[in-house]
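Ticket #4471: structure export looks truncated?
Reporter: QA, pipeline team
Priority: medium

Steps to reproduce: submit the single chain below to the structure queue and open the exported record.
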Amino acid sequence: MSPSSDDLLTRFAAGDPAAFDELVASLGPRLKGYFLRQGAQSSTAEDLVQNVFVRLLQNASRYQASGRLDAFCLRIARNLWIDHRRRGGRVFSSEEAFDRADPRPGPVQEADSGDRAVHLRSALDHLDADTRELLELAVLQQLPYREVSVILEIPVGTVKSRVYYSLRKLREQLHNLGPQEDLS
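Actual output as written to the record:
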């Protein structure tokens, strides 16, 4: 979503209550999937999604569209996730998280041919949490590198190189774990 009169939070702040309902309907499942893939339990993910929307409601009058609304919401989600982890919240492995993820078909389900999804989950388990988060934002959420850079508070060039090397490492792990298939 681009910053314009089509921005749902801007419309809500301008007095259109249906815009917030549309925002919840469009981003709610995506945010829940984000938290689940980070390792949250389903009930925790739902609570965190609610907290994202509560923060949006509380600050809607001060919101100024300056980028993509989905990236803004994912930044709030990431900050809530970090706070949750600092308080000692329970985290699952990526395999458990993918099993609890958004019920809509995602990249793993679409790419599943035979045991490929199992191999992908295993390879993701071998990556550190920061790398999984980077791939979540840049690859699974398909945010532009500029937005990922803002969310993770690192330079765009760093995002580009980390995505490149992370995907390369993931491909190597998949090559070592599973059937010899082309990942392109």
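Status: closed, not a bug. The export was complete when the record was re-opened. Leaving a note from the reviewer for reference: Residues 17-38 form the longest helix (22 residues).
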